[in-house]
Amino acid sequence: MTVREEARNETAYEHGAGDSRDAHRADRPLFRSLLRGLICRCPACGNGRLFGAFLKPVDACAVCGTELHHHRSDDLPPYIAIFVVGHVMVGGFMMTDMMFEISPWAHLAVWAPLTVLAALALIQPIKGAVIGLQWALKMHGFGDERDDRDPGRGGPTE
User: Fold this and answer.
1) Sign of dihedral through CA atoms 80, 140, 142, 47?
2) Is the dihedral of CA 12, 30, 80, 140 positive or negative?
3) Alpha carbon of 146 to those of 53, 70, 102, 111, 149: distances in Å?
4) pTM of the predicted model, to two decimals?
5) Are 50 and 37 within 8 A, CB to CB?
6) Is the pLDDT of residue 40 over 90?
7) What is the pLDDT at residue 72?
8) What pLDDT digit, counting tens, does each position of 106-115 carry?
9) Which residues neighbour 79 within 8 Å (Cβ) at sequence distance 6 or greater?
């Protein structure tokens, strides 16, 4: 939103017209979009599947037609998955180590597979939530900006 549009919205708000930014955000609630992404559903309608393969989102929702091909979830889902799984598994390992006398090989046999399975189980819902977040905040092509311009740098996309 440009400075001129913000000034126009503030003037309209002062004259009792309400804040159009709140109305503009109301059509894409953040929490609902995150939840729909977590259950791997389209953030717009909540009915269509978000993923065509394990981590490959569909190009467009089969139910409502919302285009999902221009998302940029990149590295955030793995970072979040590593953060969550690491904290849970290290806490579980430390608690188990304090309560039971288990050999290091037994710990390895238990915690290594649990860590891998937990990471694999969480990565798809986390990626869905990141796509839902981007859709709700109209980031990376989900809004009204042009696709041929990079909003981060302002220049043409390469």
Assistant:
1) negative
2) negative
3) 28, 12, 58, 47, 6
4) 0.73
5) yes
6) yes
7) 84
8) 999 999 999 9
9) none
